[in-house]
Amino acid sequence: MSDLRYDGRVVVVTGAGAGLGKAYALLFASKGAKVVVNDLGGGRHGDGSSSKAADDVVEEIKKNGGTAVADYNSVVDGDKVIKTALDNFGRVDVLINNAGILRDKSFARISDVDWDLVHAVHLKGSFKTTQAAFPIFKKQNYGRIIMTASNSGLYGNFGQANYSAAKMGIVGLSSTVAIEGRKNNIHCNVIVPTAASRLTEDILPPELYAELKPELIAPVVAWLCHENCTETGSMIESGAGWAGKCQIVRADGKLMRQTIADGVSVEKVRDSWDKITDMNSMQHMGSIQEATGALMSSLEGLRSGAKGSSSDDSDVYEYNDKDLILYALGVGASVAKPGDLKFLYENHEDFSALPTFFILPALKSTFSVKMDENLIPGKSISFENILHGEQYLEVYEDIAASSNGSFRSEIQLVDKLDKGSGSVLIYDVLSYNNEGKLLYKNQVVSFAVGAGGWGGPRQSDKLVPCVPKPKRNPDTSVSFKTSVDQAALYRLSGDNNPLHIDPNMAAMAGHKVPILHGLCTLGISVKLVMEAFAGNDLKLFKAVKCRFVKPVVPGETLKVDMWREGNRIHFETSVAESNKIVISGSYVDLNSVIAVVKPVQQAATTSNMSLQSDAIFEMIAQKIKESPEKAKSVNGIFLYNITKDGKIVKTWTMDLKSCKIHEGTPKSGKPNTTLTISDDDFVGLATGKLNPQTAFMKGKLKLTGNVMLAQKLGPLLKAAEAKL
Ligand SMILES: *[C@@H]1O[C@H](CO)[C@@H](O)[C@H](O)[C@H]1NC(C)=O
Ligand SMILES: *[C@@H]1O[C@H](CO)[C@@H](O)[C@H](O)[C@H]1NC(C)=O
Ligand SMILES: *[C@@H]1O[C@H](CO)[C@@H](O)[C@H](O)[C@H]1NC(C)=O
Ligand SMILES: *[C@@H]1O[C@H](CO)[C@@H](O)[C@H](O)[C@H]1NC(C)=O
To answer: Which residue's CA is the closest to the ligand 2 atom numbered 7?
Structure first.
């Protein structure tokens, strides 16, 4: 790399008698520039002038073979300083506004004289010299200007109110000069030095002072003033051999209005403060156009009443009938059930959304929450160690009926609890329509594993609590056999966590196979509750609260126990195959109950989500588990073909050799006996209402294969009957 030179350039340095200014002058002169060494002289308070300081520097430059001239004018007479350059060297290329004085006093004690003097030297001086040089720069289509600000201005400093104000004034001056000079190749930048000089010598501790050599900053300034440097309109902080660019940044912020008709209340500002001051999303605005442009685009969204500013996009949730149908399929709606058609067919006269669909917008809002060290100070939290612990949904308006729509949701962290082993994060998500009307509220309770022990509260009155189930036996129980593809289908509604589809991800999380979404289990459970107690009338839905206890594996059968207490239906969901509880402490609140179901004995056999016979097979399975010897003694494989309206709708394999009952045909080998029977008649057999011989004689039960072997099934069915 070739040396950077300034041959032929004329550089004016103000306040160049000592410190930074002197270092600049010496460096430029050593690299070929002709230098005007401006200094009023005097002590660090700027009083009493003498020509000695400037003369000494000029002397040193000349001794080293350079070219320089002294100037003793005050920078307030900027034109005179520039004139010195023109008179001696015929031009000026670089202006370094470095002159300064201090008047340290606490704010209350600053006199008008102190104020005016500090502003005169720093701000007005920079203005005057720059204004004098600017037309010359313009004419020659070249100029480099440095203004000197201070970290006292950027960050504030006790006792330097006047100085801070003047120094930040310089930043504003530089920003505009840079814009106005751009088309004439005039660059203007601000240096924010931390330097030892007359100005700081008795303010800083000696060790630090020793490292703040002006010679370590001068090269930064020299580069900024080189013809090949393209930087302009910037602030560069530098000291002790370090340099870095400073920028003013702005948070993403928040638009506090939903429509153009809305005002902004003080309370709204208070409630929005976290978002307004959330610097995780900060951005530097390159220009006033960019800054106002971002604001204007958010207002445009306001006017059209639809999507908000780009910064708020993540909080807008739009859906159409296809989304509703996909969700309904994901939580087990089926055309095999006439009552479900209204969730699956957009032209159905009662086409509607399942209430738990409206948890999805809240979930989407939680995805946009930034996980960082600010969430729980000192604890690292990421999505990998976050579990969905509890969910609450309360609906204020009839939203189920609209087949499409758009909501704006606002998420707020309302409380953080310390549970020792982890932290509980409570998020409220309020969803509004385009007119700003509150439609529903979600509360998402997340558990951050391993992020506890920070001394926070253990309880919160913001938390919508779970409620223990009644102590009596359930009023009804309904089963639903999930499909092995349940998670694969459900995830298409927007929960793409690979844990639910990718075997490798599931294994990493400690699961044998990908697990079902807790919200899918919830959706299925609430759908069954609505069928059992609300006649599937979703206008009756008011709220649901649930706690996720354990995961479900797709293919397992869910058993939902329900208890009615007034308009509240308590429910608990377990896996029928293992009796493991997966959702507990949960309830659905209805506006009114329209279908009081019969006691559990009948309820199980009128199970509706799937076939009635499903529950019976589960019970037989359980019975076999309890006494496998009995089953093994039969030593046969039975295939059940269950019919409805004369058609085979489901097949079950009862493998008594290996004591396994599962849906579908035998996994290995052929069945010894196949039994074909309708769903209703199978219930009849199991409940003892239908005699097997009679059924066979009347052709209700068809047997193929080893007919005699079927007789050995009697005791097993009896066992199921006893259970029912
Ligand atoms: C500016 O950069 C160009 C290209 O790198 C180089 O040829 C030229 O010498 C540089 N000018 C000065 C004054 O260093
Ligand atoms: C101005 O601030 C400086 C900062 O030091 C202080 O010393 C001086 O006393 C103040 N006067 C003004 C004007 O602040
Ligand atoms: C059932 O069939 C298998 C062959 O598929 C046979 O080995 C077994 O003995 C049969 N069981 C009875 C009880 O006949
Ligand atoms: C029973 O169902 C299975 C599977 O649908 C089918 O392959 C088989 O032929 C059926 N058996 C009888 C006897 O209907």
So the answer is: 104
